[in-house]
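Write out the 3D structure for:
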Amino acid sequence: MRCANRAGYTDPMKTALLGQIAHTRSGDKGDDSNVGVVADSQAAYELLCEALTVDRVAAHFAGLKLRGVERHEVPNLHALNFILRDSLGGGGTASLKTDAQGKTHGQGMLLLELEVPDDLSLRPRSDVCLAASLTPDDH
């Protein structure tokens, strides 16, 4: 199933971190980084299809001064894949960045805040913060 447009939720909403409803994996593709987001459930996938737009991801990573963001849907895996253009300062051995392979971009994506329906099952916020070496008070 491709992403369906579910705009206009009428259920009560709450704020959650992306990492409470999905997992990520990231790495380098030349000077670009690739961030895969895999939803924990069909309901989470449908929400992410609506909420994780190219503009939203670009704004979340604004500090990287990206040339652009591409989004690709992988519905059979309940996943979205994002390409962050020019995010690695040359990439690999050409970059002076601490993370020239973009491995931290997936962790950074997990901290993106979303509005989710109250009845959506979430993993504890503290688990996400612990994985990102933060305390829940930090974020």
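The chain has one domain: 14-131.
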